[in-house]
Amino acid sequence: MKRVLVACGNGIATSTVVATKIREACENHGIAVMVSQCKLLEVESKADDFDLLVTTGKFTGGSVSVPVVGAINLLTGINEEATLEEILGYLK
Amino acid sequence: MEGIKFDSRQVLMLKGMENDEQDLSAVADVMCEMGLVKETYKQAILDREKEFPTGLNTGGCNIAIPHADVTHVNEASICVGILEEPVMFHAMDEPEDLIPVKMVIMLALKEAHSHLDMLQKVVELIQDQAVVKQIVETREKEMVCQLLKEKLF
Fold it and tell me: What domain range includes position A9?
């Protein structure tokens, strides 16, 4: 099962919305996935345990070895489908 | 949005705001006066905005969604500031960029990873630019409150 880490500034609000959208999209596509949330500041210490990092804010907290997708579009609705496709592409 | 406190006292029609800090302070002060948040909330909001800004570039009427850690909150609630003149906020996804914001939706969350219904409805509102435009162009506080209630509750 692929693991996704969703990070935002406080790790409590926008990451909750994005994590839910990713879970729903994966369910609709029959993809088993585990989604966790954290603060952007915690990303560098946690990301190695995951297959994909998704952030709402800009990730500038160091280097990670996993692919990173910016998910602001899942909040604004602009090109939301394309961003979801990109995320699903890493999880198939 | 069951259990989320919101009434017309939590709608502010803001004039003459010079920057994001003034604007955030005005909204946070009302939440503090109402006892919805602790005295530490305002500073937490201001600090957080500097480090991780909350301006959302919607392609239309931009919105900021400031919020702080649950430890600063007494009661789950929202407070909305409508800005007569747009105020520049830094963008969440590109903190170097400044975007003009017309509406601030300040969130006071009581539990981490919770309040999903509230958060989803706020995001739905942000994406419904026709309603956002209607809200920011309404100069009447009770009407703004009613429109927000219809959309969020």
Answer: 2-91
pLDDT given at position B2: 65
CATH number at residue B76: 3.40.930.10
Q: What is the CATH number of the domain that holds A7?
A: 3.40.50.2300
With a cut of 70, list the residues of chain A below it in pLDDT. Answer: none
Across the interface, whether the CB atoms of A12 and B116 are under 8 A apart is answered: no
Q: Catalytic residue among A4, A6, A8, A25, which?
A: A8
Residue A63's pLDDT is: 87
Q: How many domains does chain B have?
A: 1
Report CB contact under 8 Å: A10, B48: yes
Q: Is A26 a catalytic residue?
A: no
Among B118, B40, B121, residue whose Cα is nearest residue B77: B118
Is the pLDDT at B133 greater than 80? The verdict is: yes
Cα separation, B128 vs B53, in Å, equals 22
Report the Cα–Cα distance between both ends of chain B, in Å, rounded: 5
